[in-house]
Predict the structure.
Amino acid sequence: MPVNTIRINKQASFMNITVLISACLLFSGSAHAATIDFSSLSLAPASYWNGSNNAGGFTAGGAFFNNSYYYDTTYNYESWTGFAYSNITNTTTTDYTNQYSAITGGGILGAGSNYAMAFGAGPNDSFIDLPNSNRPDAMTITNTTYTYYSMLNGDQFAKKFTSSDWFLLTITGYAGAGATGSTTGVVNTYLANNGSILNTWKSVSLTGLGSTTKSLGFELTSTDNGTYGMNTPAYFALGAVQISAVPEPSTTIMAVASAVLALVIKKRRQIA
């Protein structure tokens, strides 16, 4: 075979191997994205789930949302913390009896679609355990109807917000489940600030929390506080959580690819 033909075949082989290596590296760094929008949860129209079956939480899209429910038989009173979910569309009733309503009247899929809400001001009263080998990308939030009108108009417990008041959601990433372990980062986002009170779905980026995040913990704080803590109703509504698969470690693939590429370059130089 002529020398020129050999050189062409070697160059073609070199190009093919290079393309193959590049494809392997690209694949190893890719990630599958998913959106948890609560549409998979079974719920009758105009109803809610608040943990009254003492399940301790619920699962949607592979993620676990905590719930703690308590019923006082003496006073016929129920309470809960953590997460509940709902499809209630009532955005006009302003008091505590409408605590399971988002001010949007529905989830991100429209009026009457499912959404979640969290209750509890303390750090990690509510938390989300992410599916294995997934990281948080973003979440979509808004105010509940009860909290929105409490800030807009004031009520028997809380003040009417002015331009100097704020209502803040702090999202903390954790390396362990159940909002435990070392923190992977913190994201702060306002539900009310500078005279504006959130009444639409708002997307909040969580990419800064990193790929080692296993769970998310939530805390609510406000400028309206009293003797017994925060006066602002400690709720927020959650429309969706965006996650993506964490790629398999690519260290080995990169090492093999580098070695093969070095060998190809060496062979090419020998026939040049």
